[in-house]
From TrEMBL:
Function description: Transfers an acetyl group from acetyl-CoA to L-homoserine, forming acetyl-L-homoserine.
Annotated site (Important for substrate specificity): S192
Name of the protein in question: Homoserine O-acetyltransferase
Organism: Oceanobacillus oncorhynchi
Organism placement in taxonomy: Bacteria, Bacillati, Bacillota, Bacilli, Bacillales
Protein origin, superkingdom: Bacteria
Subcellular location: Cytoplasm
BP-aspect Gene Ontology terms: L-methionine biosynthetic process from homoserine via O-succinyl-L-homoserine and cystathionine
Amino acid sequence: MPIKIPRELPAKEILEEENIFVMDEQRADAQEIRPLSILILNLMPEKQKTETQLLRYLGNTPLQVRISFLRMASHESKTTNQNHLDTFYKTFEEVRDKTFDGMIITGSPVEHLSFTDVDYWEELQEIMDWTNDHVTSTLHICWGAQAALYHHYGIDKHPLPKKCFGIFEHDVLTPKERLVRGFDEVFLAPHSRYTTVSLEEIENHPELQLIAVSDDAGVFLLASKDGKHIMATGHLEYMANTLKEEYERDHARGIDTAMPENYYPNNDPEKQPKHRWKSHSSLLFSNWLNYYVYQETPYVWGEE
């Protein structure tokens, strides 16, 4: 089934060229079906790239999904065209009285700051509190996952001695958990971050369940035991070239970032990276949409 997005969204043409099932609002409204309503809080600087990455996987399930995009009113984006934001994004004030079946909170390149020093932290805290009563399940990615752990569970992030950057193996700890149904016992996923969270603190928290970890990258997948909050500290939504683009961008800015680990064939940056985590990316998003959103959300909000 398709994702339902505005007809003019730039990602629509890209996704259609990739044979992703996309339906514009006019056609979807004519169907006798209630689509899942998913809100995406996009905190990434290159918003159009992130939109396309997420929509690829949200559009690859048997469920019809209506997408809405959210931006921070307390932060001015310097990397996304204002017309794009005005056309496709809403502010929290515009959605606070609505309910959503699911929500995604993305990462953000603000790891060097304490949470309280992020200029939109107060607004983000309000949004995260709001999700408890207005969203069935929220998927948090990378810094978004760390922000959720800090806000909801009091677990802070910690700096790493070097950037966790590359493709790493992960072990599934809870194979019967719905989020990893269909996963191999060991799977690959990208990471790109300077901070981490404590495995011990998560294991000892009574409300959290650890789902997948990496010997090299640490904690990766975890969830609240009620399924309201799903956290992924890496980036399964990334495409084959995303780490390459980040690596080249850092060097163009004079940042001496080490080459991403386990990424380039034969560690040769001249060779094209392979997309070796795509199937598990599809499984993660489809499992979340099905088991944590579709199977749990009320058909009509406010009714049991």
